[in-house]
């Protein structure tokens, strides 16, 4: 997937985050137990943070593409789908067995952050002549 596709995916995730948050705030109160509502809201929160993080990596990539950035984006995307998606499905569908998927999504998100650290360590410092400074 090229950068334009990743930008679109992040934008769609952001829109879904707002819709899910509004849905939780307005339609789910009184319909779900407090525990399931909290689980749904946790999914929204984690999706929001990782969507913002994706935008940061995409902006970094626009300025300085390096190997590994797509891996970070892929891990976070898979993590959001499994972590947030399983929480949404558990809350809305009542399928508690999906709770076994949630930790796997969390592990993928953590792996994305660790991959980001590796990317950052791979970046070689710019010399003064490369950065345009004399």
Automatic annotation (TrEMBL):
The organism's place on the tree of life at top rank: Bacteria
InterPro entries the UniProt entry points to: DUF423
Transmembrane segments: 48-63, 70-91, 97-123
Keywords: Membrane, Transmembrane, Transmembrane helix
Entry's localization field: Membrane
Coiled coil feature spans: none
Pfam families linked to this entry: DUF423 (PF04241)
Membrane topology, as annotated: Multi-pass membrane protein
Family named by the database record: Belongs to the UPF0382 family.
Record-given protein name: DUF423 domain-containing protein
Annotated organism of origin: Billgrantia bachuensis
């Amino acid at each position: 997937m090229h950068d334009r596709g990743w930008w679109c995916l992040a934008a769609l995730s952001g829109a879904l985050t707002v819709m899910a948050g509004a849905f939780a705030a307005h339609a789910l109160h009184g319909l779900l137990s407090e525990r399931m509502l909290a689980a749904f809201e946790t999914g929204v929160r984690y999706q929001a943070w990782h969507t913002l993080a994706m935008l940061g990596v995409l902006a970094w990539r626009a300025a300085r593409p390096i190997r590994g950035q797509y891996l970070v984006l892929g891990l976070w995307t898979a993590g959001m789908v499994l972590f947030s998606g399983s929480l949404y499905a558990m809350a809305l569908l009542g399928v508690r067995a999906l709770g076994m998927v949630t930790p796997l999504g969390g592990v993928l998100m953590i792996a994305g952050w660790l991959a980001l650290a590796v990317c950052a360590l791979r970046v070689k410092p710019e010399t003064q002549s490369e950065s345009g400074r004399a």
